[in-house]
Amino acid sequence: MLNVCLIGAGGVGTIAAYVLEKSQRCRVTAVLRSNYTVVRDHGFDIDSVDHGQIRGWKPHRVIPFLSSAPTDQPYDFIVITTKSIPDLVAALIPDLKPLITPGKTSLVLIQNGLDIEHSFASAFPEIPVLSGLSMIGSRTTSPRAVFHEDPDQLRIGPYYHHVDDPLPRSTQLEAARTFVEVYNAGLSDARTIQKSGAECVLAEDIVAARWRKLLWNGSYNTICAVLRMSVGEVLSSPGRKTLLEPAMREMAAIGTAAGYGETVTEDVVQFLLKDTPDTSPFRPSMLVHLEKGQPLELEVILGAPLRVARAKGVKTPVLDQIYELLKVVQWHLLRQQS
Q: Where is the Ketopantoate reductase N-terminal domain (predicted)?
């Protein structure tokens, strides 16, 4: 039985914890914060396109702080599904150290953005760091309720930060394969019974996969937040031509300059622009966080690729303006919190 610590039991993390335990190969210790007491007492209520209605479900163990995670048995995987915000990452790393056993533990980062792995790889060079991209429509609707409307599609790949002894590439790849196998075991009912399309896939090049997702996140996610509109509303508006399409093509130009042109082709751009109907009520994560008064994943979704653009000499007038607007929004959110 694999021992898993999961940090960030929101919309994505709660589904991940459920899938891992459903595999019958994992015991999950979930770190909760503000909702610890209500989940401890009543569990989660989940309405899921993949798994149906689940009432009062609890992971193997819930704890209020990472510092209270038991260390009597080493962890095989520490799964982090929190928002990727630089200050939060810096604060998290010291608390992870007591939970990591070299030769046993792997970190799994299921988070948005570009270059999210570097801080963890620098802090823990002796363990595999697995990078994950989740394409899932899942959100919390109350402190103990999760609404999951789009199939769970997860890409996992090793972040090759160390290729020599004692951490060869084969060790890092094997850790990723194990996690993918276990996660798919938890999705087996979703695929065979619900036929939802849920799957966990081993990504050969996770950085390339991140650039592809940035086409969507850097355009839809950010523009919906600036305009406070759903995906369908943006697609139906004049902003489709003046903001959305130019922003996506600017992101494609950055990805191409960075060496990932085969991943961010015009065909991919056209698919992402046309795949979603203009009636879609979907509200991306950045908009949801804004409406809840929570900090935005601005730097990893937009700041990091724009720094690549500056280094490569790529002009990005639309993305630059979106970034500056969201920096002001972020300033306001943080000011309200403090």
A: 4-159
- The rounded distance, in Å, linking the Cα atoms of 97 and 335 is 31
Q: Which of 320, 207, 197 is nearest to 258 (CA)?
A: 207
This prediction has a pTM of 0.93
Read off φ and ψ for residue 199, nearest 5 degrees.
-165, 155
From CA 313, how far away is CA 245, in angstroms rounded?
Answer: 20
Where do the domains of the chain lie, and which CATH numbers do they carry? 2-204 (3.40.50.720), 208-336 (1.10.1040.10)
Q: Which of 282, 292, 145 is nearest to 216 (CA)?
A: 282
Who's near 71: CB < 8 A, 6+ residues apart? 98, 99
Nearest-5° Cα angle at 216, 214 to 217: 60
Quote the DSSP letter at residue 299.
I
CA distances from 155 to 132, 257, 289 (A): 5, 23, 23
CB neighbourhood size of 141 (10 A): 11
Distance between the two ends of the chain, CA-based, in angstroms? 42
Q: Rounded CA gap, 12 and 147, in Å?
A: 10
Q: Is the peptide bond before 143 cis (omega within 30 degrees of 0)?
A: no
Query: What pLDDT tens digit does each residue of the chain (338 aa) get?
Result: 999 999 999 999 999 999 999 999 999 999 998 899 999 999 999 999 999 999 999 999 999 999 999 999 999 999 999 999 988 899 999 999 999 999 999 999 999 999 999 999 999 999 999 999 999 989 999 999 999 998 999 999 999 986 666 788 999 999 999 999 999 999 987 655 556 689 999 998 999 999 999 999 999 999 999 999 999 999 999 999 999 999 999 999 999 999 999 999 999 999 999 998 999 999 999 999 999 999 999 999 999 999 999 999 999 999 999 999 999 999 999 999 87
Question: What is the distance of C-alpha 169 from the center of its chain?
Answer: 23
| CB-CB neighbours of 277 under 10 Å | 11
The owner of tokens 């409406």 is 291
| Residues facing 145 on adjacent strands | 45, 142
Question: What does the alpha-carbon distance between residue 54 and residue 145 come to, in Å, rounded to a whole number?
Answer: 10
